[in-house]
Amino acid sequence: MTVSRGVRHLYVHLPFCAARCGYCAFVVEVGRLARRDAYLDALVVEIELERSRLGSLDTLYLGGGTPTLMRPRRIARLLAHLRTTLAPGAEITIEANPETVDRRQLEALCGAGVTRLSLGVQSFQEHLLGRLDRAATPEMARAAFRCARAVGFRSISIDLLFGVPGQSPGDVERDVEAALDLGPDHLSWYELELKPGSALQRAAVTLPDEDEVADAYRGIVGRLEREGYRWYETANFARDGHECRHSLAYWRAADYLGVGVGAVSTVDGIRWRNASGLDAYFSALASARPPRRSAESLDADVRRRERWMLGLRLDRPLDLAWAGPPDHPEAIDELRDRGLVAGDGEGDGFRLTREGRFVQNAVLGRLMEFV
Ligand SMILES: C[S@@+](CC[C@H](N)C(=O)[O-])C[C@H]1O[C@@H](n2cnc3c(N)ncnc32)[C@H](O)[C@@H]1O
Ligand code: SF4
């Protein structure tokens, strides 16, 4: 087992939201905004407890929840606290909900050193935003984006969804054009998952037809590529130099530390998850104890399979010397004959072809035991 010389990627979970959206199953706290300053104080205590694990940070990701519900001056204090831990040129991302940002706040975040804004748009179609329980209108999303540009954000990503109940092929095309009109540097375009515990799943909604969803995905990829975005990961597209370095660290199976309620960490072959309750989190940190956690040790097989599962999401070849062998090497020739995989793990590495990327789960299911 390799022992890291310090973790280079830190995730900070900021769980407060005004309401829970119907599709969301993230660790979220609704109606407890009065505790947000105290929460940042507790986070600083947790970071200090973990300080010895941290190396020079290449990336910091403030995710949620709705991080832009936190007061910007408190975010600035958190960043100031981490200043000496951040490497020169570190990527600092904050997730933002359009209805929660204004010019002053965006200026403050930019001024505090945040380098990258990830704006949760989900769709530009009113009727779909309604279905998803989103608070922002398409106009609010556009205004937030333009304001972020105007105050100086040089790297802006937008999150969108496809496979949404009621979303027609025309809706997807209109979303692609609306997104391109803004000129984002990066897009994350996820297929909607019906997450257990979400309102949408409880309502037993009907998802769009599988073939229609597959066509929507091909249409999105093709159009974004024609506009010069690199399809660098299954659901992610970037202009040159705007790939999300933090997410790349996850996909390359690097060690990362997560702090805050429900946050997950993976360091030196151990993965742990902080418990999700806010009150228990406060009471542990108030006595300078780590929050309650569940932990598991990742054995060599789990790690090898994760490297395959994550690594094949990227458009770069998988280095088999690093990833280890697949469970079913005998499937490779057939997959290659069908034009779904290329390379041999030597000079050219091993990768999914463009066609293989569209059926990634099926390919992985042939090569590995776990999907
Ligand atoms: C941590 S979440 C939320 C960030 C922010 N609070 C927002 O709502 O925009 C980040 C992204 O995950 C995606 N996401 C959330 N729930 C999802 C689901 N059930 N299926 C697919 N993507 C989902 C959304 O695109 C969302 O913007
Ligand atoms: S989708 Fe975003 S805003 Fe909605 S509940 Fe989840 S984290 Fe909060």
Task: Please characterize this protein's 3D structure.
This protein has 371 residues and is of the alpha/beta class. The chain folds into 2 domains: 7-251, TIM Barrel (Alpha-Beta Barrel); 300-367, Orthogonal Bundle (Arc Repressor Mutant, subunit A), CATH 1.10.10. Helix content is 38%, strand content 23%. The chain is built from 15 helices and 16 strands. The protein has helices at residues 36-50, 72-82, 103-111, 126-131, 138-151, 169-182, 199-202, 210-226, 245-251, 278-286, 300-311, 320-323, 332-337, 354-358, 360-367; strands at 7-14, 16-17, 29-30, 54-64, 86-96, 116-122, 156-162, 186-191, 230-233, 236-238, 257-259, 264-267, 270-274, 293-297, 341-343, 350-352. The strands form 4 sheets. Strands 9-10-8-7-6-5-4-1-11 form a 9-stranded mixed sheet, sandwiched between helices. It has a 3-stranded antiparallel sheet with strand order 12-13-14, with no helix packed on it. Strands 2-3 form a two-stranded parallel sheet. Helix 1 (36-50) crosses helix 10 (278-286), helix 2 (72-82) packs parallel to helix 3 (103-111) and helix 6 (169-182) runs parallel beside helix 8 (210-226). The longest helix has 17 residues, at 210-226. The protein is globular and about 60 Å long. The two termini are 25 Å apart. The model has no long low-confidence stretch (mean pLDDT 95). Residues 23-24, 26, 63-66, 95, 97, 120, 122, 159, 161, 190, 192-193, 195 line the site of S-adenosylmethionine.
